[in-house]
Amino acid sequence: QVQLVESGGGSVEAGGSLRLSCAASGYVNYCMAWFRQVPGKEREGVAAIISDGSTRYADSMKGRFTISKDNAKSTLYLQMNSLKPEDTAVYYCAAVAHWDCGSWWSNRWQYNHWGQGTQVTVSS
After folding, report:
1. Per-residue pLDDT of the chain (124 residues; tens, 9 = 90+)
2. What b/e readout covers 69-103, taking b as 16+ CB neighbours within 10 angstroms?
3. Which candidate among 3, 66, 91, 121 keeps its CA 20 to 30 Å from the CA of 81?
4. CA–CA separation, 94 vs 3, rounded Å?
5. 71: nearest Cα among 110, 111, 28
6. What φ, ψ does residue 61 adopt, rounded to 5°?
């Protein structure tokens, strides 16, 4: 059974940076992703890393966010730079045992493993 635990959230001023971590137990070679959710809105895909190491990003995060994975540490990361107030949300780590989620990585309903979430607050 895969368990995911996020850390690294917090409060930062606009233009600042944060790095989120997601420690995975029972981790094999999954498709892993970051999602975020604001109260009253749908959970949206932020970025994903496919089993072959390739990455996918939502358009609004390209150039600002970087997803990476350390297989030796079974840890997923999200480096967030140039943060904006609209990036304020609860960020979730997700995983699914699928070799190639490249075409549907942002579909939250495809993931069956989730972390508890970590709050990111960006002030203007």
Report:
1. 889 999 999 999 999 999 999 999 876 668 999 999 999 999 999 999 998 899 999 999 999 999 999 988 899 999 999 999 999 999 999 999 988 898 999 999 999 999 999 999 999 9
2. beeeebbbbbebeebeeebbbbbbbbbbebeebee
3. 3
4. 10
5. 28
6. -105, -15
